[in-house]
Design a protein that fits this description.
The chain is mainly α. It is built from 16 helices and no strands. The chain has helices at about 5-25, 30-35, 40-70, 70-95, 95-110, 115-125, 125-155, 160-180, 195, 205-210, 215-245, 250-275, 280-300, 305-330, 335-365, 370-390. It starts with a helix and ends in a 7-residue tail after the last helix. Helix 7 packs antiparallel against helix 12 (about 250-275). This is MFS transporter. Resistance to tetracycline by an active tetracycline efflux. This is an energy-dependent process that decreases the accumulation of the antibiotic in whole cells. This protein functions as a metal-tetracycline/H(+) antiporter. It is a multi-pass membrane protein.
């Protein structure tokens, strides 16, 4: 099999198995926390602890992938994910809330695999096929989110500890597959720890990256997109439980639907859509869909309305994420893709640090609709930024 096809295939498998684990535990997390005496604010703090460590360490992993290769960073990330899920299972078994925090901190510290997979795809694709390749990553995300809640629901019959333990086993399987089959796309260079942490590194600093207007706007769009996405993770299970009486089973199903919408778009449609309309127009259209979906969920009291809102949100995110990844990779150039994509993921990590805590506070202190209306406001800012500051760009 040619290297390009091998990289695309194993990047898809890696992200798919990783997101299966994510899809298993995230819909259930608010219920786990509630059973341990926590609140909506506690859920927000737990998710923020993951995102804070991701924010701090993903750029380091991104730079490292530029220096020692993508494959090694992916393996480290997968091993950390397996350990974190095992800790999550143990915390659930012994009903120890602080251990949940520790498990998510470990996961955040080693969560560089998606950025490394994006960089690997950018290494082996040209400008014409890059959005389609990034869509392959998104398809893995979508399929993982479809199957994850289903597996989590099935495993929960054996006990609350079973879903995260299944997620840990899948991460180990992912590690084994990447170890034996994932090819390296970038030749490793000699590097010291001092180089990686930035003391003598010649790779771009964050300041150098954001001095380019295009990259700064892409980072801002990453931040805003993940800001309103984090609203769904924290408060959708809570608002539907209050308004519709939904439990873990129904929440798992709607998260699966959300992932299915993203899978259809990113797995089969995004390449043709990108060639027809371009990344800028798709980001604007996707942000409009996301804003409408958030507003529908905010004020809905019926099952059909919630489903429509999630379909709109899933469709919007389905086109936004691969387009943003493509723009970041093209603006970075071949020598610093890992670093720039790592910074981009950290922009999303900053949003996932602030967003869950803010969503939990808004939900608890203002009302169930507040996190969703504020998320719609973030989507509106995204529309404005993309319309005013992003300009059509010649393929790199």
């Amino acid at each position: 099999m040619p290297q390009k096809e091998r990289v695309l295939a194993f990047a898809f498998v890696t992200v798919f198995l990783d997101l299966v684990g994510f899809g298993i535990i995230i819909p259930l997390l608010p219920f786990y926390v509630k059973s341990m005496g926590g609140t909506a604010e506690t859920v927000g703090f737990i998710l923020s602890s993951f995102s804070l460590t991701q924010l701090l360490l993903t750029p380091v992993l991104g730079r490292l992938s530029d220096r020692v290769g993508r494959r090694r960073v992916i393996l480290v990330s997968l091993a950390g994910n397996a350990v974190s899920m095992a800790l999550f299972a143990l915390a659930t078994k012994v009903s120890l809330l602080p251990l949940l925090f520790i498990s998510r901190i470990v996961a955040g510290a080693t969560s560089g695999n998606i950025a490394a997979c994006q960089a690997a795809i950018a290494d082996v694709t040209d400008a014409e096929d890059r959005t389609k390749g990034m869509g392959r990553i998104g398809a893995g995300v979508g399929l993982g989110m479809v199957l994850g809640p289903v597996l989590g629901s099935a495993a929960s019959h054996f006990g609350e500890w079973a879903p995260p333990l299944v997620a840990s086993a899948l991460a180990l399987a992912d590690f084994a597959a990447a170890f034996f089959f994932m090819p390296e796309t970038r030749r490793p260079e000699s590097v010291s720890l001092r180089d990686v942490t930035g003391a003598t590194d010649q790779r771009p600093s964050l300041w150098e990256a954001i001095s380019q207007r295009g990259i700064l706007i892409v980072f801002a769009l990453y931040f805003l997109t993940f800001l309103y996405l984090s609203t769904i993770n924290v408060t959708l299970p809570l608002i539907t439980n209050v308004r519709l009486g939904w439990t873990e089973r129904e929440i798992g199903h709607v998260f699966g639907l959300f992932g299915l919408i993203m899978l259809v778009i990113q797995g089969g449609l995004i390449g043709r859509m990108s060639r027809a309309w371009g990344a800028r127009r798709l980001i604007i259209a996707g942000s409009v869909c996301a804003m409408c979906g958030l507003l529908v969920v905010a004020w809905s009291g019926q099952v059909a309305a919630v489903v429509v809102g999630l379909v709109l949100l899933g469709a919007g995110l389905g086109v936004i994420n691969p387009c943003l990844s493509t723009l970041a990779a093209e603006l970075a150039g071949s020598s610093r893709r890992g670093a720039i994509l790592g910074f981009a993921q950290s922009a999303g990590g900053l949003a996932r640090t602030l967003g869950p805590t803010a969503a939990g506070i808004l939900y608890a202190r203002i009302g169930p609709s507040a996190p969703f209306t504020s998320g719609a406001g973030a989507a509106l800012v995204s529309i404005t930024l993309a319309s005013v500051f992003l300009r059509p760009r010649k393929p790199a």
